[in-house]
């Protein structure tokens, strides 16, 4: 076996397929672009969907990649099994309507067995095939695989629902009897079964059917090849590692963790080994994901990041690590990946900052969780129960990051168990909620083959002119058919040249009209998109018949176009200003450029202060007022990067790129349209800034006349305010507002004081009126001219004087009613809960509420029901 590093193995795979005519596609960001069906990029093919469904035709139908991916559907198994990971790399080769089974199988066998490449012993390889796929079996035998090394398995059919599907063939490597942990007659003891001896290393999917919405399987117009080889598994074979974790992809993090631990060593204790593996795996995943723009939060991708960080920290504590340590593993991860992902090390400081901040936050949460867990243990014992209920265990897991195993261990130390079925039921509910959130989107479209075949040359000339008088109509698409003439209301058109910009990079498409030779309008252009082969595809509303081969006069709406390009150029200035003010880690996460406003999403850890926003806005306007020329150069990507051009993760660049420079302030790759000079933008004004997702902020802004209109409206509103405040000069408005706020504060304090006195006077009479309700004593009262704050203060007085078992107070005025319920601490221990009582009586005031076991409150809109609610409380206690 060759002695190769993970970097060498990755490169060897890519080099092999490059020799076979494949284009090496760079690894895309883990954060999907324009794909609501995915939380993460979870495979190599996930980035190729647009090619397989025919939305876009690739320049080369043969592609290969090493794609970083994340899967978290079985995170519980990470660290406990040899092969499960959250972050992994999928090596793959892809064919879009080019070669098929014979070539895919022949090349796979060559890569694996040729001495020039992997050089594996062919006798150690086993292949599984779909029973009805006789071609695959024939081709494997033709390259030299023995018939008894080819196994038919009914499950070898790749199908994820609507879209491309087909049979597949899996390749297994026999690691030898030393890895065989099953009995010879065990039903899983075969290549393809659940065992460690035969390691699956590659899956080749022969995508040859369309799975239709009707549930049928129709032959694809263009057959495809999609393969996936797990880098981590292949490395374990080359490096003769028992598991994936004993390879150069994970061992550096494990060794570093050993140095942080309390004299713990990997390979000594099975329980400790699990903790070391979890930490190494999760450190890799969070480091790369944060580098790609994901940030910890309570939703979506952010929730996954937070969960991984917390799970790693808890396992660090099991190894005796008491202080923040996970952030120190980020540079170690960067070193293991630097040969192919140098950007991880480049962002080291930012990644460390994010992880360290989350570690500090969780260490505080962890202490709160431990206290809560102790309270749960105490209350479970007090109720004479043997198990902590599943819902509570899930809350500890979901809110405080406690793995089920940790809760189980702490409970066992106290002589208790945990309701595992209840926990799993809550976990299933959460997974279902996540599935439902994405159920409306389709994973992959059915192939639209019509436009894939249309390969006419079509030139976009809108960078130079917005008026083309002799555009030849090449294609007319009506109801998914190519026609020579159309009178349909809506059709799609392709011309030999066009001034209409097709929607791309967040910039909306141009609008305009199509005229005939007489200057009469024949159609309105309402949208322009890119056809699969790159032509500008015009969607039009027709007024007259359109004829293929005829020439037309194409006219772009100049005002619409001008307003869009002002806003687009402003996004470039905004992007660079954000980097300058907030830091170089800031990356564009999306944009929308319309004629009336611009929207710009960016990754950022933490809030954006008003002061920073003001700096950003001022910086953009400084560039506008400098009247700097906007220059565009067409070059190759390598030269563009040397010029300092910023590239976006979400964009794939061809052989030629447009580099847009605004002086020495901003340089970006961009195919959009722009003003000639920044002075054309006129003015820039931020309208709003907000958070729109985990670590993603959004700025909305306007330029030119829209910015002037906004400022003018704000000025008029300020004048109205000054008139109502009776202030003669606008500059004095803030001072007058502060004075009014102080006056209101003083009046509120006086009101609270008076209400407290009145409530106290009423309380003396209320507290003397103690009643018996069943086995409990209760005090109830309707306090007039009070608020919730006064009710809570009276409840504190009641508790400190131990006046009864239960207190229920209400107050109301106008359309508002409030209730407070308090329960003596000694009664809480016996199962009496304020929250249960408040939920029972709150409907009487048309409201709802909740709270702690010893104190709860409710609000409603029916003060007339207060007396009924108080009586209902007495009756509720009588029935306890």
Fill in the keyword field for this structure:
6-stranded antiparallel barrel; 9-stranded mixed sheet; 4 domains; 25% strand; BirA Bifunctional Protein, domain 2; 23 helices; 35 strands; Elongation Factor Tu (Ef-tu), domain 3; Threonyl-tRNA Synthetase, Chain A, domain 2
Nearest-integer average pLDDT: 89
- How many domains make up the coordinates? 4
User: What's the shape?
Assistant: globular
C-alpha termini separation: 75 Å
Helix content: 25-40%
Beta strand count: 35
Spans of at least 5 consecutive residues whose pLDDT stays below 50 are 437-443
The CATH architecture of the largest domain would be 2-Layer Sandwich
Strand content: 15-25%
Assign the structural class, choosing from mainly alpha, mainly beta, alpha/beta, alpha+beta, or little secondary structure.
Answer: alpha+beta
What's the CATH class of the largest domain, please? Alpha Beta
Radius of gyration, taken over Cα atoms and rounded to an integer in Å:
34 Å
Query: In the CATH scheme, what's the topology name of the largest domain?
Result: BirA Bifunctional Protein, domain 2
Number of helices: 23
Full CATH superfamily name of the largest domain: Bira Bifunctional Protein, Domain 2
């Amino acid at each position: 076996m060759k002695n190769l590093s993970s970097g060498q193995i990755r490169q060897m795979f890519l080099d092999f397929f490059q020799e076979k005519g494949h284009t090496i596609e760079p690894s895309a960001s883990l954060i999907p672009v324009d794909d609501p069906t995915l939380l993460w990029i979870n495979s190599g093919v996930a980035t190729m969907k647009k090619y397989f469904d025919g939305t876009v035709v690739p320049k080369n139908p043969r592609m290969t990649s090493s794609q970083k991916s994340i899967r978290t559907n079985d995170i519980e198994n990470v660290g406990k099994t040899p092969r499960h990971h959250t972050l992994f790399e999928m090596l793959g080769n892809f064919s879009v309507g080019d070669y098929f089974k014979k070539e895919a199988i022949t090349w796979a066998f060559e890569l694996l067995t040729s001495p020039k490449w992997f050089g594996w012993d062919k006798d150690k390889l086993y292949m599984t095939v779909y029973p009805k796929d006789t071609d695959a079996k024939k081709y494997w035998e033709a390259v030299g695989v023995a018939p008894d090394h080819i196994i038919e398995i009914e499950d070898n059919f790749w199908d994820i629902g609507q879209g491309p599907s087909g049979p597949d063939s899996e390749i297994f490597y026999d690691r030898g009897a030393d890895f065989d942990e099953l009995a010879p007659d065990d039903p899983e003891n075969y290549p393809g079964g659940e065992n460690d001896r035969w390691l699956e290393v590659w899956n080749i999917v022969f995508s040859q059917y369309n799975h239709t919405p009707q549930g049928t399987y129709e032959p694809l117009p263009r057959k495809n090849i999609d393969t996936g080889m797990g880098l981590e598994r292949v490395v374990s074979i080359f490096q003769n590692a028992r598991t994936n974790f004993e390879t150069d992809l994970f061992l550096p993090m494990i060794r570093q963790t050993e140095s942080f631990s309390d004299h713990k060593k990997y390979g000594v204790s099975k329980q400790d080994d699990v903790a070391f593996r979890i930490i190494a795996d999760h450190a890799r995943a969070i480091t790369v994901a944060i580098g790609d723009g994901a940030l910890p939060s309570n939703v979506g991708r952010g929730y996954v990041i937070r969960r991984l960080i917390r799970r790693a920290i808890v396992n660090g504590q099991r190894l005796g690590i008491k202080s923040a340590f996970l952030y120190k593993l980020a540079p170690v991860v960067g070193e293991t990946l630097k040969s192919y992902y140098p950007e991880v090390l480049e962002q080291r400081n930012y990644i460390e900052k994010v992880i360290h901040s989350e570690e500090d936050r969780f260490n505080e949460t962890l202490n709160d969780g431990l206290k809560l867990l102790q309270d749960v243990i105490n209350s479970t014992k007090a109720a004479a129960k043997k198990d902590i209920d599943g819902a509570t265990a899930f809350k500890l897991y979901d809110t405080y990051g406690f793995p089920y195993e940790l809760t189980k261990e702490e409970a066992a130390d106290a002589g208790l168990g945990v309701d595992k079925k209840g926990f799993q039921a809550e976990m299933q509910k959460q997974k279902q909620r996540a599935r439902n959130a994405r159920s409306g989107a389709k994973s992959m479209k059915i192939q639209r083959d019509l436009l894939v075949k249309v390969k006419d040359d079509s030139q976009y000339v809108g960078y130079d002119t917005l008026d083309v008088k002799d555009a030849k109509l090449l294609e007319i698409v009506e109801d998914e058919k190519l026609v020579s003439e159309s009178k349909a209301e809506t059709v799609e058109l392709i011309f030999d040249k066009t001034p209409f910009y097709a929607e791309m990079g967040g910039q909306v498409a141009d609008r305009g009209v199509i005229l005939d030779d007489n200057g009469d309008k024949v159609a309105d252009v309402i949208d322009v998109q890119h056809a699969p082969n790159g032509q500008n595809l015009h969607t039009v509303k027709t007024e007259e018949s359109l004829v293929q081969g005829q020439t037309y006069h194409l006219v772009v709406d100049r005002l619409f176009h001008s307003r869009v390009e002002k806003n687009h150029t402003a996004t470039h200035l905004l992007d660079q200003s954000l980097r300058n003010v907030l830091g170089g880690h800031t990356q564009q996460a999306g944009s929308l450029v319309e004629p009336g406003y611009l929207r710009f999403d960016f990754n950022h850890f933490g809030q954006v202060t008003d002061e920073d926003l003001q700096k950003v806005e001022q910086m953009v306007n400084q560039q506008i007022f400098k009247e700097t020329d906007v220059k565009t150069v067409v070059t190759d990507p390598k030269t563009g990067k040397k010029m300092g051009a910023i590239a976006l993760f979400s964009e794939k660049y061809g052989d030629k790129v447009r580099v847009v420079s605004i002086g020495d302030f901003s340089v970006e790759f961009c195919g959009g349209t722009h003003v000639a000079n920044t002075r054309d933008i006129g003015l820039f004004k931020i309208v709003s800034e907000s958070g729109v997702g985990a670590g993603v902020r959004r700025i909305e802004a306007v330029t030119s006349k829209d910015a002037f209109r906004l400022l003018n409206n704000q000025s008029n509103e300020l004048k109205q305010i000054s008139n109502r405040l009776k202030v003669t000069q606008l500059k004095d408005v803030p001072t007058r507002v502060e004075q009014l706020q102080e006056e209101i504060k003083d009046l509120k304090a006086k009101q609270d004081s008076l209400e407290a006195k009145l409530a106290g006077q009423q309380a003396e009479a209320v507290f003397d009126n103690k009643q018996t309700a069943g086995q409990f004593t209760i005090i109830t009262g309707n306090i007039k001219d009070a608020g919730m704050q006064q009710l809570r203060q009276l409840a504190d007085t009641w508790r400190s004087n131990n006046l009864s078992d239960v207190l229920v107070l209400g107050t109301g005025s106008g359309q508002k009613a409030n209730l407070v319920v308090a329960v003596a601490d000694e009664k809480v221990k016996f199962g009496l809960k304020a929250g249960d009582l408040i939920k029972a009586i709150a409907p009487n005031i048309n409201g709802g509420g909740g709270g702690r076991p010893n104190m709860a409150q409710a609000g409603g809109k029916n003060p007339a029901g207060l007396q009924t609610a108080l009586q209902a409380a007495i009756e509720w206690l009588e029935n306890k």
